[in-house]
Amino acid sequence: MPALQFHPLADLFPLLEGAEFDELVADVRAHGVREPVWIHGTRILDGRNRYRAAQAADVECPTRTYDGDGPVEFVISLNLKRRHLSESQRAMVAAKLANLKDGQRADLVEGLPIGRASGLLNVGERTVARAREVREHGVPELVEAVERGTVSVAAAADIASQPLEEQHQIVARGEREILEAAKAIRAKNMEERRSERIARLAAISNCDAPLPQDRKYPVILADPPCPARRATPTPGIQPWPRAWRCNSDARLRCCGARCCGIRKDAPPRRSVPPSIALPTRADNDLRQALPRG
Fold this sequence. Notes:
This protein is α/β, with parallel strands linked by helices. The chain has two domains: 5-188, Arc Repressor Mutant, subunit A (Orthogonal Bundle), CATH 1.10.10.2830; 225-293, no CATH class. Helices cover 47% and strands 6% of the residues. The strands form two sheets. The protein has a four-stranded mixed β-sheet. It has a two-stranded antiparallel ribbon with strand order 5-6.
């Protein structure tokens, strides 16, 4: 039987290597190929490992032809049912599916988007996007580690953001070092983003500095009276302090006299008066950025 080529869709999933492939060869040598290999055109659509094992064991490899119109769903369905792939491994397969070149897409949906690829492999689009980063920027050893399932795609994406030489050094140290390096890179990136946010807040705070008094500005300042201030107090209603009363720039919606007072027997209102501003996380970051004293 002449040697058969692999279909691009068959190459989406990683090959068996090492001890797993040796066990398959021993089983094929003892019992033969029990499940025929699927052929699409003149290439193997599904069954690369069985075909390779049959060649290594020097036994006949039965084949059958696929004549359907959905080879993508067919290949993915067979492999997902037969193989126990982690989320990271499925994400790498989806990234391969989304990255197939036009010449390899002759029997695929035109312009297969990353959203459909993630749906076919039952994995999130964000995870597939990170897998694409690993495939595009990661060294081959890092890509193989994710495809084997020894490294998560999230950790690999952090490693792939580093220079190639540094990636080679990290991957050569082993799986534990990859995870530790990814954790350190992630913490460094978070600290850099936090410093940038504090710098932006500090720059914004400079805009609140007093304006120079030696010039004129095209600004009209108006403070129209609020109807609630002229309203006659209602019996049983205790008016709020002046600083709490609504005015033209208040954050409380004016509804007449009652918006500026509360009943004596009513529970305290939870709304924040306009003169009170609760501290936020941005305020805390800004406080740290400003000089003390």
